[in-house]
Write a structure and sequence with these properties.
The longest helix is centred in the middle third of the chain and has 37 residues. This protein is rod-shaped. The chain has 39 residues and is mainly α. It contains one helix and no strands.
Amino acid sequence: MLEINFLCIFTTIKRGIILNRIQLFGKDKNIKYDNKREI
């Protein structure tokens, strides 16, 4: 049971990190586009 719980926690943390990276890249792209529009 402990091993299964550990794997579930590990996979959820990995997914969270990947989602955060995708969100950060999306924000960076949006900021770049906004800057181009302002200029």
